[in-house]
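Note to self: keep these together.
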Amino acid sequence: MSNSTSSVNTAFYITTRPKSNPHFNSTSSRFITFTSPNHHTNKPWNSWRSRRKSFSHVKNVATDQQSVAAAEQEEQGVILRRVSKSIASNIKYHAEFSPSFSPEIFDLPKAYTATAQSVRDEIISNWNATYDCYEKTNMKQAYYLSMEFLQGRALLNAIGNLELSGEYAEALSKLGHNLEDVARQEPDAALGNGGLGRLASCFLDSLATLNYPAWGYGLRYKYGLFKQNITTDGQEEVAEGWLEMGHPWEIVRNDVSYNVKFYGKIAMGSDGKKHWVGGETIRAFAYDVPIPGYKTKTTINLRLWSTRVTSEGFDLDAFNSGDHVKAFEAQANAEKICYVLYPGDESMEGKTLRLKQQYTLCSASLQDIVARFERRSGSSINWEDFPEKVAVQMNDTHPTLCIPELLRILIDVKGLSWEKAWNITQRTVAYTNHTVLPELLEKWSLDLMQKLLPRHVEIIELVETELLSTIVSEYGVEDLELLEKKIQAMRILDNVELPATIKEVFAKSEVSAADTDINEILVKLDGISNKVEPKDKKKNSKDKSSTKKKTFFKPDPKQPKLVRMANLSIAGGHAVNGVAAIHSEIVKEEVFNDFYKMWPDKFQNKTNGVTPRRWIRFCNPDLSNIITKWTGTESWVLDTEKLAELRKFADNEDLQAEWRAAKRSNKIKAVSYIKEKTGYSVSPDAMFDVQVKRIHEYKRQLLNILGIVYRYKKMKEMSAKERKEKFAPRVCIFGGKAFATYVQAKRIVKFIVDVGATINRDSEIGDLLKVIFVPDYNVSVAEMLIPATELSQHISTAGMEASGTSNMKFSMNGCVLIGTLDGANVEIREEVGDDNFFLFGAEAHEITMLRKERTDGKFVPDPRFQEVKAYIRSGVFGSNNYDELMGSLEGNEGYGRADYFLVGKDFPSYIECQDKVDEAYKDQKKWTRMSIMNTVGSYKFSSDRTIRECAKDIWNIEPIELP
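Structure:
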């Protein structure tokens, strides 16, 4: 058989007998001619794209513009019909010969799977070309490691990026189905929870679109986080079976797998090297998900790891003897690693499972990266070149074990010295920080890590010694109090004895600062012998006769020994970035100030971004068409700075009318969805006021619902005429998941549901106010709700949200924001203009003082705040006891009390700002202008901009466009 890539027509006999779809194949059997999916280079839609781009030949021979347009339209129609016919045949082929479903019926689930497999054919062609290009050029590649990738549905995004939306719609129409109905059959991939995972997915889209050589690495969770049901009792969690009907986008790589070890012990081998022996070994298998770029052949890869053991792990003797549980024990222990995203960690078993997850991600990914480096290097491997070919980005601290794992591979497996391995690791790895809360920085039990990963603890101890040596070099020993303070703040191991070489600095009870020879000490610190001058020598110098009492770092036996993962990330990498301007400043000035003072060049800001493809172009086609029309180009999808063209039309009545019509169309879709999912009917004429994100106290959904309760109370106190004059009609929509063990967050969900149940049934209030909690919020729900939103709430306590990405998505879609000066809100407000952002609340620099004021008993709550709490306790929202919830807002100190997130402090400012929202919304011309200006100002928040900055400043990679 010829291996030629010329078009090959293959005839196959189709015998399906559809029962519900007469358009699929009305005859009982017939021959269909099909262009084989193995010959992608000559698919009709490839030639169609090239022909469309080179259509200028028509213009060269035609003088009449109308004739040109007519000829062009006719030719495009011919090509579309030809391509859609080929696509329809491809879909039929997969319906018959990729049998994920029974052949008797071509219903929507089967249509989705066959369509996805058809799209995947085209993607795989580009994926293979991209992979081949990277292998041949051996260029530097970035690897993005994340515990979460919140991808959402892939079908519409993929065919949109391939520029085949019209063709697939036409093809499915011929087969008796609607493209949108087919796309809705796809479950959201349950690989993430919130902004961290969605950011990672946006980054992959931009990396592919901009032709950067990069891959993502994650875990293939069987059940994800959980599926959220909303009942009268609040949130109910059930397993999310997103894989039950198969996942047509993934490619199983049975040839790519790596051993991952746990437990065991360290033994010295006859070769004089340390060996990690014994313990438990599982196998990580690769599943690849191709990520196509927009209007480019570049298709990068998201490699997900699934865990199991080989057949040797099945205890056949135990099974035959009747001990079936024991027979499957090894397999069960391996598989559960990838069952659930963020398993509950209140038990030791839960903590162990989480640490296993993190190490599996790091170990399998690093082994894969190293293997790729070695293969591309051929016979001349130079490990010094590793950082010149590999960049590893850790998305938060979850992948921090990359640092000791890479060191382990380089030292124990590849035989490099500590000095070389340490230098290579520091030049390779970088860290993105996602929290400004020191108490939320990840810390692991040293005892647990010692038990689970004994070799890595040894390596972390070496990293700690290296770090402490640097601190002593930097600050000297003249001021031992200063040195102690720096070591306490910066060391990796907390509540642990200092290394012996460092303890010598503090060994004597009285040390003369003037007589201390820093260079003698440094000689003992891992061979460092270069003379240094202590930092701030004049400031820290003491009189030669003065003495200091010795300082001890004695562990407290009552406190746990911990490994500070963020400190390890900073010490082991070459770059640390925050994700918004205010966040990065807090990181430098507060959270990691000591590190920043020692290594200022390591710290950067990379404000988050979101892909404009998914978050405007595909999820909001009505608005996209308007933007293209009024900017005169579709290139804004790749260059969002072109959105600035809308600025000069912001007051144009025609644009405003089209803008409002698009928003109303999206609201009508949301109305239908809300009715389907909650049973509540809402009016599309009311303002859609939305807060959708992870349920957490610092995000202050509680402030929002308290404001709604206050609004409801005031409505009840007014006549029908008065309330209609004062309040704009609103549909207040909430969505988001509370972590299963986060009791207070689940109380908030329950309270929102109870308030909604009361208000939504109040005929006196009617459509003037509705409260909706949308269940199981995910990317697909966001794609429906965000285009319909008019007011978007981002009201976290100032200084506590690292950035946020949903605020960017809402702003892109013309939603007006109400919020605090927190995270990316600060930069959004700067770009859209103060007049187009509703600002309230305390600022970040005031928070510490305000909390102290509360602790000192000096806080005087606003009467309106007291009023709303009393109203809730009156029983108006049912017989449920809200004492715990309201009690968290009261008192001056204590865990779960004292209003740590300043809801009471910001409440008066918040409700006064909401009055301004009502007033603005009544002037629809003004409101529409504000909406347009939010879309204009969102140009800065494309993930394309973020990726370009990361590629240049952190990864040092260059784009490469496939031929």
